[in-house]
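Step 1: inspect the first sequence and its tokens.
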Amino acid sequence: MKKTMKVVKYLILAFILFAALLAFLLAKWYTDRYGDTGFMSIISTFMTPWKGCSNNLSISWKLNALLPAGILTLILYPIFFYRGKKFNWTIRKDGKNPVQLFPIKLRLSNIIFTVMCTTLVVVAAIMVRFPEFVVDYYFDDTKLYDDHYVSPDEVEITFPEKKRNLIYIYLESMETSFMSKEQGGAQKVDMIPELTQLAQENVNFSHNNGIGGWPRINHTTWTSAALVAQTSGLPLTMDLSKIEIGKFEGYLPGATNLQDILKEQGYYQTFMCGSDANFGSREEYYYLHGADHVYDLFTARKDGLIPEDYMVWWGFEDSKLFDYAKQELTEISKKDQPFAFTLLTVDTHHIDGYYDKSCCENQHSEQYENVISCSSRQVKAFVEWIQQQDFYENTTVVVVGDHQSMDNQYFVRNVEEGYDRHVYNCIINAPITTEFSKNRVFTPMDLFPTTLAALGCTIEGERLGIGTNLFSGHPTLAEELGLKYLNDQITKHSDYYVDHFIED
């Protein structure tokens, strides 16, 4: 029995060492690869389905965290737990009688082991901003939503007599920093000239006088959160007291979003991506809020676009995704009702993007740059195809990045420190114009009412969620409250948010 307990003890110590090493190496891998996305993005990742994740990322974290943690455990464990000299930790009282300070005898290696494991865990927590998250979420409460949230159910939204179609294109990780420095970007040459041209010739909301977008906004820095922010006017916050791992049922069931509004107006709505739509619970979000159909890797196989066992990158490449989109848009546009078609690209996802030989050219020194340029050409070609269709005259096209790129090491290597990165946006064929598109401070939440305005809708008060219709010239919350203050408030806990949006 004594021998068994000793074995159990050493197994527990081995697990503690492995866990501490893994925590540190995972935190380092995550921050090196993703940059500063905030701890809520990590929570969201683990709270929602991970099935469908790219093999590239799966292999990366195993090679850079799991495997090294295992190897280091095997190396360090014998060093820490050899039978070395024990310290009695005693002192002499009056120079005669010894007094034991601790009830057990400790080896120096035990002390080093404890200090090292503790330090690894603490440093890992700091790297992913866990202490900041705990303070904000559990010890501070914001009144941001109590004071500023505008429910779409409580304001009048008027659609034009002839409802316009909507094509909403999310470009994975697309930002204006891929433009040249002369154009306000961060590169020597413009890597996205086609997207630059689209922004110049159409409506682009910008933080400056040229082509620009919105900066990093807390709780919107990963794809699922970006989809939620741009369609509901809300950042994505998870209620940790209500969500169980493996039992996630969809984002913000209590919030009325763009899809809910369009459903009520008789729109046929679809969402299409070139990966498993269940990853990050994107499928649940769109079906929960009124989507009629979701297209993804599995429907593409079923529809014969790709073979049954086809799998590259996250699913299938964007060149096939745009062909799929053309096929389905042609059918959807024949319906006797307005449509809203949402498309999400994937080739430009980190790490380094997917190099599609049918599209990519070696114009630049790095693969990621060539993938970005390829995406720009593909999007321009797809927009030109849309413009040639009969339905285009009555269709608004929104082209936006979902969030800043998470390929952190690329920016460490290629972008000057301190450069202020912004997410790309462009609105094409809107029935209205604006004088208020430049020198704005705005967030992805503002895209919610702005998209409705781009469909020709009028919005009482010009605000929905915590977003503002950018066409209107009304100050955004970021302009009214200050971007830093708004970003700080978003990270804090809100009873209003939980009660009204998470709890249906």
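Step 2: inspect the second sequence and its tokens, then contrast the two.
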Amino acid sequence: MNLLKECLCRGTAPVRVVSFAKEYLREQGFEELYYDTLFVAREEGRYFLSPFPDVLFAFTIGKAKARIQAARMAFAHVDQPCFKIKGKPAFKNMNCSQLNVEVYGGMMDHTWFDRPLAMAGTVILKGDNPFCPKEREYDSNRPIAIIPGIAIHMQTDANSGWKIDRQRELMPITGIAGSEWNENELEQFLASELQVEKSEILGFDLNLYNSDQPEICGIRKEILSAPRLDNLISVSALLSAIVQAERDNGVNLIGLFDHEEVGSLTKSGADSSLLKDVLCQIYSGLGCSGEMTRASIAKSLYLSVDGAHGAHPNYPDRCDTTTRAYLGNGVAVKVSGTQKYATDCYMKGILTGLAQKHGIALQEINDRNTIRGGMTLGPMIGSRLPMRGCDIGVPMLAMHSARETMALSDYESLCALLKAFFSEE
């Protein structure tokens, strides 16, 4: 659980998740390769590469020198709903300093009121060459903002439900707008934090995140409540599995993508050519021809690992009548007749067999016909690289809330299932 807790605490922005993953993989003996060079991966090698600061691939290669090297792959995303800071963010209102932000992803708005908000992301600084600016990763590591709710006396329908105006009601307060306030307040703060001149700051990609800490809850200490469970529980489990699992034959690979919460159609998203490009370079380094690469991919299998909607005891009418995912009953296999998920019955059979062999708790989930679940990486990857895949995840409550809830035992089941998937020949 230490890996999961550290991932949750340090994964406060996509670049921070990837930096944590790179540090962990280096400690475990993985060698870094570079996407913008011609790399060659060898048998029995352990490697990772980060084509952009917010995306990462890690892979291991067995010792067998086979003509066809089938891959086992698993993917997760590193982004989560948050507040993105706009380009000219500082303004003052009613004697308060505020930040102009936009909502990123499908946020559950009302859960973000009265939360301590810290800031993380990337700051771009002036370099010696305009085409080579400096990238600085940043995390305030303390709350610098808050979005205060309004008193019940002034919003009498607060408990009856009201539509939140994101432009007006979700503007964070960063302080009191005294006589020293100016519109460059954020840039001045960043310059001080990074120990540079304000004129050196060329731009930034920063988000506000809930700085609450993970907490173990429940009489028997079996429930985890934390920000960013979706999808850092999957990231943590993938990192654990790629380090622990070994196969003599073929390639094991994990991919951590950005921008899943906004559609994935970006250079760092799963709906790009990155995965195919990386696989082709791996197989080229192993001496595979184009036809051998195609055959290897055709024999490959993949898992799309993302949070699943757990059956909520207070809202039993929000899940399917019979096929539900209960907290504490193990990993959920997501199935959809409309192909919203990548799962087919063959892959479901493989996972069921693995679970039975290793005594791993596994369950199945379908969406309720009148309620659509969220998107996943699974169908995107399968449409770009035709191979068998499956969508799985840990059931959770309050997905996309400022804090989410899950059963610790389900995370253990996910780690065990991924290890078996990457280990069995």
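Step 3: confirm your contrast with the notes below.
The radius of gyration is 23 Å. The mean pLDDT is 94.
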